[in-house]
Amino acid sequence: MLRFSKIPIVVLAGFLLIFPLVCTGISALHGYISLMVFAGIYCLITIGLSLLMGYAGQISLGHAAFFGIGAYVSGIATVRFGVNPWFCMAGGMLVAAMVAALIGAPSFRLKGHYLAMATLAFGLIVNIVFREESAWTGGPDGLSRIPGLRLSGFMFNSTIRFYYLVWVIVLAAFLFAINVLQSPAGRALRALHTSETAAKSMGIDIARYKIMIFVFSAVLASLAGSLYAHFMRFINPSTFNLLFSIKLLIMITLGGMQSLWGAIVGTVLVTFLSMEWLQFFQEYESIVFGGILLLALIFLPEGLTGLPNMLAGRGKK
Amino acid sequence: MTAASTTAPHAVLRVEDLVVSFGGLAALMNVNFDVTQGTIHAVIGPNGAGKTTLFNVITGYLNPTEGTVFFEEHPITGLKERQVAALGISRTFQTVELFDNMTVLENVMIGWHRHIRSSLWACGLGLPFIRRQEAELRRKAMDILDFIGLADQAEDRADSLPLGARRILEIGRALATQPRLVCLDEPAAGLNETETETAAHLIRAIRDRGVTVLLVEHDIRMIMGISDRIVVLNYGEKIAEGTPAQIQADTAVIEAYLGDSGAGVYA
Amino acid sequence: MNMASLAGQLLQYIVTGVTIGSIYAMVAIGFNIIYNVTEIINLAQGEFVMLGGLVMVSLHMLWKLPLIAAFPVTVVIVTGIGLLMNYAAIRPIRRPTVLTLIIATIAASMIIKGAAMLIWGTDSFDLTAFSGRTPILIAGAAIQPQYFWVIGFLVVIVAGLTFFFDKTIIGKAMSACSENAAAAQLVGIDVRWMVLLSFALSAAIGAIAGITMTPIALMDYDRGAMLAIKGFGAAVLGGLGSFPGAIVGGLMMGLIESLGAGFLWSGYKDAYALAALLIVLFIRPSGIMGNRDVIRFKRF
Questions:
Q1: Residue C178, domain extent
Q2: CB–CB of A300/A256 below 8 Å?
Q3: Which of B56, B62, B123 should one mutate to test binding to chain A, selecting the residue with the greatest count of A CBs within 10 A?
Q4: C106 touches A: beta carbon within 8 Å
Q5: 3-class SS at C288?
Q6: Do A297 and C104 touch (CB under 8 A)?
Q7: Which pLDDT does position C261 carry in this prediction?
Q8: Measured between alpha carbons, how far is B220 from C142 in angstroms, rounded to an integer?
Q9: Are residues A286 and C117, on separate chains, in Cβ contact within 8 Å?
């Protein structure tokens, strides 16, 4: 039976709670808090992707676009129209949901590689729109002076405050995803991944579930985008390009696609690798990440979170 | 399971003038027969006779070229697999299509899918009614596992079971959908004698619960032992229909079997 | 704007579109060859094109090999890289599912692209046009001779492949693999060898596309991804797996792109063809020439 044990979740929550306190104490780790904010924002996207790709077996190469939709809806509506950021966040999620349904519906009607193609094309088009519609988006220069977030007088104006905001949302999304997986809906998702033939004979509406989970993952990505915009106070199109979609892929592959925990582990790791530990290798970024991805596929078919199982299995032999 | 109708036995399934051809090659030619409520109805025939094709048409996995299938007097040809399932026709597969990454219990629980609430929101928020529903499903699924004799393996992964148990589990999963008709595609294929015996018992028990069984099978001895009525297909055509005794005496049937796949069928 | 110059402009865009489209068609053919044998979508297909262009530039411009000699050497080198990719990135995958194999080709493309950047840097390179750069004036349109080379090579590739698949034993064996790998194995065809061959063929065709397009469009290390996407798009537009579809899809993508960039906003150049693709997928998911059933029965 698919069951998520409560203890690791409590441990994770505890770790997240004290992490900033430890980091502020040690000056070398100071920058890690903001890295964790980014990691948290990306985790929101990869939790959705993990459900979509790992559990339901559908590939998306365009989630950067939904991330961008959230960021730009928030950015444009707050900067140009002065709308309340929380409304923008909800608006972005709504837009992302509608767009995802529109893209997903035809792609899921047939099997094959159509979702890969459709999401790839969609991601590129959206990125071009961000770049070209400069009257709205600021074009390649981006959009600045995006306001921060406040909750009835409380400003999320420091990295630590934002850190807690982001990770509370991530934990909520994580718990939501866990609940889904342990429920009839999750069973249906895992079923259609294993055997569509059998899933149909159980009366499961396969297309509906695929679209539902695609929309859900798009909504999470959009929420992440809004948070990103309000944290950075500045956005430009290059954040939401194809490379970012691929980085998301690397995150969940490295962590372990078949596991929600893999999404968290992989995302935090890749975020730290690409924004901090591999900074010297900037020029080699493409080779390094391509290599990591390939090695993970070859040697860690279940990702890092599958490692204990793999080692245990080998030990038995 | 489902309450059997108290009125006189009627045709729960009617196959009318069914034709299926693949690019000019006829897999089924004008096949007609009725399946009576509450019986075990077998379809037999040599390899390539069109048995699985017939199953695929009945369960919506294949659209016929011509002809109609009626389920409880309603035409169901042209419906999707899922819609056919929703009407109360459940099936198993020759190749055993279990959800291998799930436990035995989960495989059966999923059978209730079309009867329960499963919205993403309710599930994600872990609403109380979903939790209650899960607990109830688990109980009902355990009942089915008791019925098919796999209760002890409830928490094992489905792919860890031997073939015999896998076929039985697939039947259990089909029952969990609360069907009025189950279509079993070679439930004894690849099973040893004891396992075949178990499957035969199970099939009878299913009928005794009021569920009509339509089955395709190669194991003639098993068929003769459990079937109430038999349809024989050869090269896509129905060559005989009747009780096991009638079929055993039918010259056309004997000829088809001896002429096609050689002797030893009755062995 | 008078009618004559408008007509000339239109012709110009059409010829340009057909030329770009021929490149997309070549990439799409490369996709289809690998897809038909293995059901892998090789997203590194564009890197073969990029490598074709840059290797040719080095051989011809740097090492002064004449075009006629540099051309086959380039094709051989890129083909070798295609084989290497099959050995290093496809075969070792422990759990080859569609999902992991697509991701593996993405990994390979990142590695190839990164290596190309280290070798050639980030500059764009030009290559000598095969027959000079004196434009041919036809009805108000100025057409580069190289355009004809590109279109001509597409014709040669199509003719060659048709002969290969219809008339040679290896080609027939490959077709058999695409129809039913298990059955092909049963009659003694070595499927692994066929997979290898499909990568070799695709890489070679990619290299030819890269070599012929570089005199028109220059080449740099970063071009692969976009070429792969357009080529994949062309293949899907025409119906994944269909060779006539790849040509029609490629030409359509090229024409839409060229006409869109010419008459509408040029900033959206890369978006038009992809948007058209999304719309086609929406209306007819199996592509223009695709057979609905064929696609339905392809395993995912």
A1: 18-134+142-225
A2: yes
A3: B123
A4: yes
A5: coil
A6: yes
A7: 87
A8: 78
A9: yes
Within 10 A of A272 (CB to CB), how many other CB atoms are there? 16
Q: Which of C107, C117, C278 sits opposite A122 (nearest CB)?
A: C278
Architecture of domain A6-316: Orthogonal Bundle (1.10)
Q: Where are the domains of chain A?
A: 6-316
In this complex, the residue of A106, A111, A125 whose CB is nearest that of residue C281 is A106
Q: Which ranges of chain A does DSSP label H, i.e. alpha helix?
A: 6-25, 32-49, 63-81, 85-109, 114-132, 134-137, 159-181, 184-194, 196-201, 206-232, 242-255, 260-272, 285-299, 307-316
How far apart CA C64 and CA C42 sit, in angstroms, is 33
Is residue C128 in a domain? yes
Nearest-by-Cβ selection for A124 from C106, C108, C229: C229
**Domain ranges for chain B:** 11-260
* Cβ-based neighbour number of residue B259 at 10 Å: 10
Q: Which chains touch B (3 or more CB pairs under 8 A)?
A: A
Share of chain C above pLDDT 90, in %: 40
- H-only helix segments in A26-158: 32-49, 63-81, 85-109, 114-132, 134-137
Judge whether A2 is closer than 8 Å to chain B, CB to CB.
Answer: yes
Judged by a CB distance cut-off of 8 A, whether residue A203 touches chain B is yes
Shortest distance between the Cα of A276 and any Cα of chain B, in A, equals: 34
CB A92 within 8 A of CB A223: yes
Least confident of A91-105, B140-154, C181-195: C181-195
Query: Does the pLDDT value for residue A228 go beyond 90?
Result: yes
pLDDT for the residue numbered C254: 94
pLDDT in tens, C239-256: 888 888 899 999 999 999
Q: Is residue C166 part of a domain?
A: yes
- Asked if A184 reaches chain B (Cβ–Cβ under 8 Å), the answer is yes
Instruction: Provide, rounded to the nearest whole percent, the portion of chain C with pLDDT above 70.
Output: 93
pLDDT of residue C4: 66
In terms of CATH, what superfamily is B11-260? P-loop containing nucleotide triphosphate hydrolases (3.40.50.300)
Q: Any bridge partners for residue B36, and if so which?
A: B11
Q: How far is A175 from chain B (nearest CA, A)?
A: 8
What are the helix (H) ranges across chain B?
51-58, 81-87, 104-109, 120-124, 128-148, 163-176, 193-208, 220-226, 244-248, 251-260
Task: Give the CA distances from residue C58 to residues A74, A219, B220, C44, C50, in Å, rounded to whole numbers and listed in that order.
Answer: 47, 47, 73, 21, 12
* Residue with the two structure tokens 């991601």: A123
- The C-alpha atoms of residue B12 and residue B214 are separated, in whole angstroms, by 11
Which amino acid does the sequence have at C226?
M
- Distance between CA C107 and CA B228 in Å, rounded? 59
Nearest-angstrom CA–CA distance, C198 and C90:
12
pTM: 0.88
Distance CA A297, CA A295 (A): 5
With cut-offs at 50, 70 and 90, classify the pLDDT of residue B50: confident
Verify whether the Cβ–Cβ distance B119 to A194 is below 8 Å: no
Cβ–Cβ under 8 Å, residues C232 and C102: no
The span from the CA of A270 to the CA of A267, in Å, is: 5
Beta-carbon separation of A257 and C298 below 8 A: no
State the average pLDDT over residues B26-49.
87
The number of folded domains in chain C is: 1
List beta partners, residue B11: B36
Complex confidence, ipTM:
0.87
**Residue-level pLDDT at B10:** 73
C contact test, residue of A298, A299, A302, A309 with most C CBs within 10 A = A298
Contact C107 A112 (CB under 8 A): no
Residue C27 included in any domain: yes
